[in-house]
């Protein structure tokens, strides 16, 4: 099949997932055309099976806001026509599903049928999508997509509830390449004897970074641990200055990385106190790296992090709950090891080789 993938190019979960999906689809024999405003950070295009098409938005001073959706729809039409594309898979509804619908209509006038599959990832529904300024357009583009998937049951329920729609939604979870993480675990040489607690995110307010730093501050007063923070985003500088003010010892801000597995393999516990989190790809990557997970119970996180099995879950604002969950693990090697092994085993259910065929099945449905 010839497939267009539209995604965000940044270090966010939806872009990373879309990119890894495209790589695997190409490995399975499809041609994949990525359309984005920049080259996606993990993309390995090769001009044979994986192509990258940049959306250019010319600057015109009359516009306060440059019309990205128009440029995106036009690019989809061009790429679809030039490459006889079979279908379009958009990741993150806003504004991709909307732009894809316009492209579909334009192509129809040229007797080209381009079915749309939209994957809902999270804040496209739970934060931005349901905002009254966007809601009707998001509902419209979800309902007009030929197939809609969501990354968790929780996100599917939220979509039905927030948009008051009966649209059929297929749940297809996030995935990891278990082989890649296994290879890294085998190569991972011990760093030091300190217990390591890691957080990975794009440091947006929804990730609850200030609470995270307060949790680290309490733990740092009681235990000689190492705290790793991976990623960059709007609350990074606040996190840095809070950690200095609170004099947290052994805290390392490691920035963005394309090889998160190289850091996670040295880590014991992964913490994710998000206010909302539709799936939690970063937590899944940590599980595949044999970390016990301490997360909030928001959104789809309890579907992934099984409370008392792969880690602990608690309310996102319950600082004491996070601290005592981590304390339990730091004080009990047997429990920590049990959760680490459980988390690792659970992550195998989300292997790329099992999940990507679920998308291919949807593609076949679209074309039948
Ligand atoms: O919805 C977002 O915040 C954006 C998106 C991203 O690009 O980072 O993240 C979402 O998609 C990921 C991949 O499906 C999920 O693993 C994340 O849980 C989800 N983030 C949130 O729901 C906050």
Please explain how this structure is put together.
By secondary structure, the protein is α/β, with parallel strands linked by helices. It has helices at 13-27, 68-83, 93-108, 123-126, 135-144, 153-163, 178-187, 209-222, 236-245, 260-264, 281-288, 301-304, 319-331, 333-347, 352-367; strands at residues 2-6, 31-36, 50-54, 87-91, 116-120, 147-150, 169-171, 196-200, 226-230, 251-255, 269-272, 292-296, 311-314. α2 crosses α3 (93-108) and α11 crosses α14. The chain starts with a strand and ends with a helix. The mean pLDDT is 96. Bound molecules: ligand GMT. The site of ligand GMT has 21 residues, from α1 and α4.
CATH topology of the largest domain: Rossmann fold
Rg (CA only): 21 Å
- The fraction of residues in strands falls at 15-25%
Average pLDDT across residues? 96
What's the number of helices? 15
What's the shape? globular
Residue share in helices?
Answer: 40-55%
Bound molecules: ligand GMT
Cα separation of the termini: 13 Å
Task: Note poorly predicted spans.
Answer: none
Superfamily (CATH H level) name of the largest domain: Glycogen Phosphorylase B
Q: Supply the CATH architecture of the largest domain.
A: 3-Layer(aba) Sandwich
Could you describe the largest sheet, including whether it forms a barrel?
A: 7 strands, parallel
Number of strands: 13
CATH class category of the largest domain: Alpha Beta
Number of domains: 2
Class per helix and strand makeup: alpha/beta
Q: How are the strands ordered across the major sheet?
A: 3-2-1-4-5-6-7
SSE order, as H and E? EHEEHEHEHHEHEHEHEHEHEHEHEHHH
């Amino acid at each position: 099949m010839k497939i267009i993938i539209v995604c965000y190019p940044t270090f966010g979960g939806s872009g990373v997932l879309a990119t890894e999906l495209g790589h695997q689809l190409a490995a399975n024999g499809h041609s994949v055309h990525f359309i984005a405003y920049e080259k996606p950070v993990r993309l390995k295009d090769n001009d044979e099976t994986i192509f990258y098409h940049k959306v250019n938005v010319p600057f015109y001073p009359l516009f306060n806001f440059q019309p990205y959706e128009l440029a995106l729809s036009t690019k989809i039409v061009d790429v679809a026509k030039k490459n006889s594309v079979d279908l379009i898979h958009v990741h993150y509804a806003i504004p991709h599903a909307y732009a894809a619908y316009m492209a579909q209509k334009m192509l129809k006038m040229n007797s080209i049928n381009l079915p749309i599959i939209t994957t809902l990832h999270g804040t496209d529904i739970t934060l931005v999508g349901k905002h009254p300024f966007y809601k009707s357009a998001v509902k419209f583009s979800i309902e007009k997509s030929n197939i809609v998937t969501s990354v968790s049951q929780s996100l599917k329920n939220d979509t039905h509830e927030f948009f008051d729609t009966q649209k059929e939604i297929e749940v297809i979870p996030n995935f990891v390449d278990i082989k890649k993480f296994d290879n890294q675990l085998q190569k991972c040489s011990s760093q030091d004897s300190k217990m390591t607690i890691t957080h990975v995110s794009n440091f947006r307010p929804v990730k609850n970074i200030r609470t995270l730093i307060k949790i680290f501050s309490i733990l740092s007063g009681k235990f000689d641990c190492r705290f790793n923070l991976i990623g960059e985003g709007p609350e990074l500088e606040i996190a840095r200055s809070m950690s200095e003010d609170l004099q947290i010892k052994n805290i390392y801000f490691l920035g963005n990385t394309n090889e998160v597995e190289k850091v996670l393999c040295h880590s014991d516990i992964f913490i994710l106190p998000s206010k909302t989190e539709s799936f939690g790809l970063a937590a899944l990557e940590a599980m595949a790296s044999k970390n016990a997970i301490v997360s909030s119970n928001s959104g789809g996180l309890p579907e992934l992090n099984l409370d008392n099995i792969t880690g602990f879950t608690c309310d996102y604002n319950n600082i004491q709950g996070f601290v005592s969950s981590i304390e339990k693990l730091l004080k009990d090697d047997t429990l920590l090891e049990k959760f680490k092994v459980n988390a690792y085993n659970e992550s195998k259910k989300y292997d790329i080789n099992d999940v990507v065929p679920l998308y291919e099945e949807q593609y076949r449905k679209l074309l039948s």
